[in-house]
């Protein structure tokens, strides 16, 4: 059905890219564009391809947002811990990026690293609180936060593996005892970078 | 809240409260009335203790950390979805496939 409808009035690709950069997030019209392209609207797909010519600058901007979020995640780990985990995060990043990552890969690798830091922080918070004595409700709250962060990390890792399977070479990633190979999840050994 | 003996005759249940900076003691009653009031006060006290114990002191701080993470996650997902569509893939039953033709 969507193929037969007239192409909608869409903002110019450069405007969409600028909007991504200025709004510090993906604007609704960009999401609409993706939905229309997904529904088979060829004009929208063409506009989407033009917009993705701007991906390197969009990715750079997103990376700076990710960097600030990383600093935030490290902030609660104490001075010594923050330094150790920041160094570990950089090793992860270097290892996952590979030699010549595409802008999309950079985005996804940064997200894996950020999610790993966040999961680590939530896990440490839970254990610190647990040692201090928690009520059942408090224990459930912190455990849920830690689980949510772990799930997000797993999804990020799977997304990276899937994008590399579809757009680039096969890679094998081991994060926190979950081995993710091109979108499938198996039990594996934990490898630190 | 306490039980008091007045003039060596029976126990009275009392409550204390502060009024204009002074502690005022209220005599609630003796016997079954006092027992009931004491039980109700005990229940209220236990509930307050439970609520205090279950409070999450840093709930807002944790949420403030989580919300931008969720937003960034969603933004990157959108960019990935758009990139795969632009690269000629489409989603079929939750799986990305190369579009034919």
End-to-end CA span of chain A: 49 Å
Structural class of chain A: mainly alpha
Overall 3D geometry of chain A?
elongated
Low-pLDDT windows of residues of chain B: none
Quaternary state of this entry equals heterodimer
| Helix/strand order of chain A | HHHHHHHEEE
Rounded mean pLDDT of chain A is 77
Residue fraction in strands of chain B:
25-35%
**Lateral arrangement of strands in the main beta sheet of chain A:** 1-2-3
Q: Mind telling me the C-alpha Rg of chain B?
A: 32 Å
Number of E-state strands of chain A:
3
**Number of H/I helices of chain A:** 7
H-E order of chain B? EEEHHEE
- Strand numbers in spatial order across the main sheet of chain B: 1-2-3
Share of residues in strands of chain A: 5-15%
Q: How many runs of DSSP E, i.e. beta strands of chain B? A: 5
Measured by residues with Cβ under 8 Å of the partner chain's Cβ, the largest interface is: A-B, 50 and 33 residues
Overall number of structural domains of chain A? 2
How is the biggest beta sheet of chain A arranged? 3 strands, antiparallel
């Amino acid at each position: 059905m969507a193929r037969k409808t007239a192409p909608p009035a869409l903002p110019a690709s450069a405007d969409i890219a600028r909007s991504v950069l200025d709004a510090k997030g993906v604007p609704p019209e960009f999401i609409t564009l993706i939905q229309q392209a997904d529904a088979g609207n060829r004009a929208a797909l063409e506009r989407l391809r033009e917009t993705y010519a701007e991906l390197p600058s969009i990715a750079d901007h997103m990376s700076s947002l990710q960097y600030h979020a990383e600093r935030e995640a490290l902030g609660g780990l104490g001075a010594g811990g923050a330094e150790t985990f920041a160094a570990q995060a950089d090793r992860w990043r270097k290892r996952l990026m590979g030699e010549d990552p595409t802008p999309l890969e950079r985005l996804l690798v940064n997200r894996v690293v950020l999610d790993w830091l966040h999961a680590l922080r939530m896990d440490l918070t839970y254990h610190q609180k647990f040692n201090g004595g928690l009520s059942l409700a408090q224990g459930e709250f912190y455990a849920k936060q830690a689980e949510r962060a772990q799930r997000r990390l797993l999804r990020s890792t799977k997304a990276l593996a899937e994008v590399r399977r579809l757009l680039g070479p096969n890679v094998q990633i081991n994060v926190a005892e979950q081995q993710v190979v091109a979108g499938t999840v198996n039990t594996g050994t934990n490898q630190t970078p | 809240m306490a039980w008091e003996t007045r003039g060596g005759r029976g126990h009275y249940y009392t409550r204390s409260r502060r009024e204009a900076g002074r502690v005022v003691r209220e005599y609630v009653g003796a016997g079954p009335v006092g027992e009931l009031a004491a039980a109700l006060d005990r229940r209220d006290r236990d509930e307050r203790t439970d609520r205090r114990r279950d409070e999450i002191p840093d709930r807002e701080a944790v949420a403030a950390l989580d919300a931008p993470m969720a937003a960034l996650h969603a933004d990157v997902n959108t960019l990935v979805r758009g990139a795969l569509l632009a690269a000629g893939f489409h989603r079929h039953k939750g799986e990305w496939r190369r579009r034919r033709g």
